[in-house]
Specification:
Layout lengths: L1 E5 L4 H4 L3 H10 L2 E6 L4 H6 L3 E4 L4 H12 L9 H27 L3 E5 L4 H9 L3 E4 L7 H17 L9 E4 L16 E3 L28 E5 L7 H11 L4 E5 L16 E4 L4 H4 L5 E4 L3 H9 L4 E3 L6 H11 L2 E3 L6 H13 L1 H15 L4 H12 L1
Parallel strand pairs: 1-2, 1-4, 2-3, 4-5, 5-6, 6-7, 8-9, 8-11, 9-10, 11-12, 12-13
Helix pairs in contact: 2-14, 4-5, 5-6, 5-7, 8-12
């Protein structure tokens, strides 16, 4: 079979698709990813083909902001989000994507939850498509706005909107919102912390509370987009007096950008989350979906400090499930430190995080889902 994955050009959107892409690859299927050219090195290491189409995320964000005003990353209004994912991205990517996809001839298109190019390709080629979620259900006020803009672009290409045959859901029951109902084609799929291409796919037991240590080990990660030294330095200063910190630098920053005088801090460059979580007691994060789901898959509690994008969804899910605490703006670094102490001092959060991990472990693996989809298409 020939499986085409399609992704918004951002690590937070592409990485949650890798476990399923690897599963199809390991089955012997032909797998390709439709996204921007900057992901070629990573996909080459995965032995997965890249169909390089469309601009990179910064160009898309700038154009969407030019059209609507607010930047959809830090200010995710429905109109700005819809313009970025459905308006600007289709306008600047669809033509090249259609050419590349027709040459690849997929039997199935897999598109992440906010990708609008993959479904357009599936509609044009007359093949089924699967929506792969990376976190809790996106609220209707956002999906309705995205669909409205996408529909207008589909019509420009002479196409009708298509419904996904399957909705792959990584969200454990504990994190679902009140009143949740399964979408059409709902199929659970186990999320995992991102691992490097050379790391074996092994099940990691949920973390147990650390005993006998005086200083907790805390991972501070604001992902690849929101990891600004000006934002993180005050948080580091608030947490370091009582915790040993492992701080991710994002894609461009260096330890020198954080200045001097910091103790109990280990800065690390871009590293797979599966490695970052080793030996950790708590994660303080911006609340990216991949980071949140990967952390809970390990049974680790979380402090979520949302910065933009869809992070408010993960913050609400973590707070509602009491797998951690959400610290909302305009609360400052002191509130983050208080939240850290609250989570570390109350075993309920760890118990709930391990319950989420148990629910995640019981979900079908990406390989099982790949086999299920392939059987349905054969």
């Amino acid at each position: 079979m020939r499986i085409l994955f399609s992704s918004t050009p951002a690590f937070g959107h592409l990485l949650p698709q890798l476990p399923l892409a690897r599963a199809f690859r390991d089955r012997g299927d032909d797998v390709a990813v439709l996204t921007a050219a900057s992901f070629r090195p990573m996909l080459t290491g995965e032995r997965i083909a890249l169909l390089a189409v469309g601009p990179e995320a910064p160009e898309l964000l700038a154009e969407a902001a030019r059209r609507t005003g607010p930047d959809p990353a830090p200010e995710p209004t429905p109109a700005a989000v819809a313009e970025f994912f459905a308006g600007t991205r289709i306008d600047l990517t669809a033509d090249a994507a259609l050419v590349a996809a027709r040459d690849f001839r997929p039997d199935l298109v897999v598109a992440e939850a906010t990708d609008c190019v993959g479904p357009l390709v599936a509609a044009a080629l007359g093949v089924p498509y699967t929506k792969l979620a990376f976190g809790p259900l996106i609220p209707a006020e956002f999906t309705d706005a995205i669909d409205s803009v996408a529909e207008s672009r589909y019509k420009e290409h002479g196409l009708d909107m298509v419904t996904p045959t399957w909705y792959l859901d990584p969200c454990p029951e504990l994190l679902r919102a009140p009143g949740w109902e399964p979408p059409h084609g709902w199929t659970p799929m186990r999320p995992e912390a991102h691992r490097g291409s050379g790391t074996p796919d092994t099940t990691v037991d949920a973390a147990e509370p650390t005993a006998g240590t005086t200083r907790p080990k805390v991972l501070l990660s604001f992902g690849t987009v929101f990891a600004e030294p000006a934002v993180l330095r005050p948080v580091i200063e608030a947490l370091a007096p009582t915790a040993d910190l492992r701080v991710t630098l994002g894609l461009t920053a260096t330890a020198a950008d954080y200045g001097s005088g910091l103790e109990h801090v280990d800065f690390v460059g871009f590293t797979p989350l599966a490695e970052l979580l080793n030996g950790i007691d708590l994660v303080v994060t911006h609340g990216g979906a991949g980071t949140t789901m990967g952390t809970l898959a390990r049974g680790l509690p979380i402090v979520v400090v949302p910065q933009g994008a869809d992070q408010f969804l993960q913050a609400a899910a973590v707070a509602g499930s009491r797998t951690g605490v959400a610290v909302q703006s305009p609360a400052g670094p002191e509130a983050v430190a208080q939240a850290m102490n609250e989570v570390l001092g109350n075993f309920e959060y760890g118990v709930n995080a391990r319950l989420a991990a148990e629910q995640i472990a019981a979900m079908p693996s990406p390989r099982q889902v790949a086999d299920q989809l392939a059987a349905a298409l054969s």
